[in-house]
Amino acid sequence: MIAKVEPLTTARALRGPFDYRLSERLGAVGIGSLLVVPFGRQRLLGVVVEVAERSEIAPERLVEPLWAVEQGVPPELVSLALWVAEAYCSTPARALGLVLPPGTGRGERPRVRERHELRASLTEAGRTLLAEAPDEANANGARPGRTGAGRPVGSRQWAALAGLASGSRALSELIHASACGHASLRGLEARGLMALERGRVRRRPATPAPVG
After folding, report:
1. How far apart are CA 70 and CA 23, in angstroms?
2. Does the pTM exceed 0.90?
3. What is the pLDDT of residues 39-96, one digit of tens each?
4. Which residues contact 18 (CB under 8 A, 6 or more apart)?
5. Domains of the chain, first to last
């Protein structure tokens, strides 16, 4: 596979993207992946803007990226940056620089600071409890008094468990939706009804506000 990479350089005369041969050691590479690539005598950070099966460059002339940076750019932001570059007569590298993760450098050792969040999900015990008492777990919290692991489950805790029935959610989002406090959610975790784990936040473009 071939990664078409836009090196992040300020040179306006540069005409990319440039082809690099991908190997299995880099893992999964796709649009938006950040790669450190050899570029002349330099090592530059670049953004993958396309992945292709073959290149017009002779195989013996293709080189591999040096390594991949863990956090990349969402593909939709890559598309936005390329549109900005074309619409405003800029370079792809400069436009892509606007959508990099905060704190990312442009050299061979990019400074990437990842954002993390706590996410909540139901355990098997939590799913079993919801299945056994579906009337209790409605969007309004319903009636407290059922027990989970031998203890009462309050109405807001029921609302929190019900809010996880369709999948995991950010803890902050769950607190807002269920009005269940952090301590009460920790109580559900302690009883084995809910699991909390820290995950990486994937950056997404903001939804534009309606005009008019």
Report:
1. 16
2. no
3. 888 888 999 999 999 999 998 899 999 888 877 899 999 999 999 999 998 899 999 9
4. 4, 5, 6, 7, 37, 39, 46
5. 2-97 (3.40.1440.60), 116-200 (no CATH)
